[in-house]
Every structure is written in structure tokens, then in C-alpha cells.
Amino acid sequence: MAVRPQQLLRAEIADLRSYHVADARGLIKLDAMENPYGWPESLRKQWLGVLEQAALNRYPDSRAGQLREDFCKAFSVPAGVQLMFGNGSDELIQLLVLSIAKPGACILTVTPSFSMYRLIAQFIGVRVIEVPLAADSFALQVDRICTAIRENDPAVVFLDCPNNPTGVLWPQQQIEQIVQQSQGLVVIDEAYSPFASRTMMPLVERYSNVLMLRTLSKMGLAGLRLGCLLGAGQWLEEFDKLRLPYNVNVLTQLSASFALENISVLDEQAGRICEQREQLLTAMHAIKNIRVFPSEANFVLFRTLDVSADTVFHRLLEHKVLIKNVADGLLLENCLRVTVGKEEENRTFLDALQGALA
Ligand SMILES: Cc1ncc(COP(=O)(O)O)c(C=O)c1O
To answer: What is the pLDDT averaged over residues 188-194?
Structure first.
């Protein structure tokens, strides 16, 4: 007799739903914090020339040696800080949680924050402690976090700096307080660092229990899937035992190396996105019936005041504009998140938003 999935699978898997990705065909896509700009034609041609040399018949360099060098140079990784690449930061988060998944172990994060910390822990079967941010300012409640750390002794604390979906970048001194309280690891996830005014990299050098996540996704290479975990060798050598040997493919290694050799193009695009963000924020502040939150990332969080977020989301879709409805999260009542797009995309969004709020 055929066995049914529920008979074989762990109960927590049966209870989960697959990660939902909206179908964006034919829409102005402002939902996933992607960089809206492509590369100049001449750069694309050079890149295709690089890909021509790819040895697709061979396994990739498991250590990604060339990419390692290019990454350290492009991001001025301090000497002594080690790195490990993943198929996006998502894979590295999974690997971190897998490595600490002893019976009774837990992780801690704040809410709202990047949903994958919680989802991954759930499917691995690790308990998640979630400490709410302060309502409306989305500030860290450091005392509550420190109490939760003392009471639960989490193996890993995940903090996204800037925070997704609020765009807030918390003060380094608060992160440091949390680090000093932690007996376990503190992972500072800087996915949005290309758009932020500062980095917390000095903490990785200062504290042996601080790790950092970076990704190329938000700066313009979401399709490549390349994330990086940075930290002390004593930790990365352990995590490397869990990494599947060829997790970063040949095309990603070559393309990412090429992009990092031309990092000035990506930096210039990040600068343009920050300018667009400021224009978008100014225009949104002038719209009645919404509350707009400040952002150090490539997206803006806002709250609808008179019409529900759900209604606004669907009205925007009718105008072919796709943003993210985050209104179901704690502290996010009637909140929506829009990615900063090109100038004309932002204008279309603003017009559609005004119509949707009417
Ligand atoms: C805070 C944060 N970290 C990591 C990621 C995912 O990065 P990657 O594309 O490298 O898996 C996201 C994506 O939205 C994010 O918001």
C-alpha cells in the first residue's frame, strides 16, 4: 500500500507552507529589493567573453579561490577575517542553524525581521525566540533582548542591519551590548549594506563570537545567488564541514568575480538607488493618508491610514505595480514595503498609490 507523505514526514514539515514568490510577469516589480539597473552594453559583452571560458564539464573550484580574493579586495575584508560562500545568504543561514540544532537549542531574532531566520529554524526543528521591536520606531528593545538571552541562552542571535522590512539601521553600540550579553553567536546580516551609511564590520574583528552575512543579491546580482559568511576561522572551519562541496557553481563564481572586478559600476548604481530612495521618501511624505518610515536600505516601509493595506496592494496590482504586503506581521498592521526602482518606475508607483488611496 502506498505510503502517504504525512506518515513519513516530520510533523513540522506537514504544517509548513512553501515560500511564496509572487508571479511578476507583466508587472513593475518592486517587491523583492532587487537592483533595477542592468549593466552597460560594453560590460555585458566582456562578461559574455568571460563565460565563454567556463569549463562546464568540470566541477567548480570547491574553495572558490579566485572569488575569495576578489571578494576580499572589493569589500576590504580585514586581514584575519575568514569567509565562506553560499548559494545565497539563505543557504548560509540554513547551514548555521543546522550546525547548532542540538536537542533544546534555540535561536533568537527580533520581530519583524527577515522571515527566513524563523522559517529555516522551524523546518530544522529549532526553537525560535522572537523579541518585538519597539512599536512604530522599530528600535531594538535592548533590555528585553538581553533578558531573553539570559533566560534562553540562544545558540545564535540573528540581527539584520539594516532591518528587513523596516529599513531601520540600529546603533552599533546597541548591537555591541547584545554581543556582550551573548554566550552564543551573534550574526549581523548586512544584506542592505550597499545602501546604508555604515557597516558593523569592526565588530567582526573585535569579537570572536560575531559573524557577518553579506550577499550580492541586493547590489545587482540576485540571479547569481551568492552569499558570504564572514568571521573567525575557528567557526568557519566547523561550518565548512556542513557545506556541500560544490555549492557555488562555475557560472556564479566567474560572473561574481567579473562583477567584483567592476565593482565601481555596482557602487554607482547603489548610489543612484540611494538618490532615488530620498526622492521617493520626499514624495511619499507629501502623500496624506500614509505614514512613511525612514530607511537606510533600498526599500521603504509605509502604513496606510484610511484604506487597508490589502486594498491598496490589490489596487496597485490593477495598475500593474507589484509591491510587498507585509501587513500580516506583528507591529506591521496595514504596512506595505516598496522596493526603490528606476525613476520612472517610482513615478508610476507614486501615481498608482495616490489613486489607490483615493
Ligand atoms: C536581511 C536579509 N538577509 C538575507 C536575504 C537573502 O539574501 P540572499 O538573496 O543572498 O539569499 C534577504 C532577502 O530579502 C534579507 O532581507
So the answer is: 98
Nearest atom in ligand 1 to the alpha carbon of residue 222 is: 9
CB atoms within 10 A of CB 241: 8
Outline where the chain has alpha helix (H). Answer: 5-8, 11-14, 41-52, 65-74, 89-99, 115-124, 142-152, 172-181, 201-206, 233-239, 250-261, 263-285, 309-318, 343-357
Encode pLDDT of 108-120 as tens digits: 999 999 999 999 9
Of 320, 323, 330, the closest CA to residue 309 belongs to: 323
Instruction: Return the ligand 1 atom nearest residue 216 CA.
Output: 10
Q: Which of 115, 188, 218, 324 to mutate to test the pocket of ligand 1 (most atoms within 8 A of CB)?
A: 218
**Ligand 1: distance of its center to the CA of 114 in Å?**
7
Q: Which of 214, 236, 262 is the last residue before a domain boundary?
A: 262
Same domain flag for 218 and 337: no
Q: Which of 262, 287, 319 is the last residue of a domain?
A: 262
- The structural domain count of the chain equals 2
Is residue 46, in this structure, part of any structural domain at all?
Answer: no
Domain containing residue 273:
5-40+265-357
Q: Is residue 52 part of a domain?
A: no
Residues with CB under 6 A from ligand 1: 33, 88-90, 114, 160, 164, 189, 191, 215, 217, 227
pLDDT digits (tens, 9 = 90+) for 43-94: 999 999 999 999 999 999 999 999 999 999 999 999 999 999 999 999 999 9
The domain spanning residue 33 has which CATH number? 3.90.1150.10
Express each pLDDT in 257-309 by its tens digit: 999 999 999 999 999 999 999 999 999 999 999 999 999 999 999 999 999 99
